[in-house]
Amino acid sequence: MRTQLALTALFAGLQVASAVDTKPQSIYALDAIKAIMPGFSATCKGTTADNECRTPEQAAPYLIKSLERRTTGEIAMVLSLIGLESADLKYRMNHFPLPGNPAQGTANMMGEEFVKEYAQSLNLPIDGKSGPEILQLVIADDFQNFNSAVWFLERKCSDDVKAKMRKGTDEGYLLYLTDCIHTTDSPDRQAYWKRAKEFFGLTGQ
Length: 205
Hints:
mainly alpha; Lysozyme
């Protein structure tokens, strides 16, 4: 398993530019996103909600910033969650099952009460606003949208769950789902986790 220091170099220190192209490239982060979220849209054109969709290239800088101090295990689990909940970066609002909940959203599809709590932590002007209006304030900023998963991890996961997540084990991932997110495991969630483990070289043990 990679150490946290090595991971920082791998995932957070990826904004490099060649002598020919001075535009920063998030190479390994892009590789991770594309490997874990294979249903991503390369252009976001023609998707169900074009204004919500982000390409891996658009999302990478925000995910790098959000996850830069996390271990391999934590990064793998958070990306797995975001991949499933956002349908590979296509959504930042809840649409399914139809008609969806217009107050639920962000990259990790937080429930309305958590969106409001997150907005309060960001000092957003939410007084007198409805749930859907509060969500729109949160997701209007890309970093706020993508950082919501780490915010939730920090505030809603117990120290015991966090410790197991940092190790990148299957047990840690299951506890993340059941004891922190309060959802159930499923084949779809396991598929994302398997891809994340393979990309980061985690055994799950």
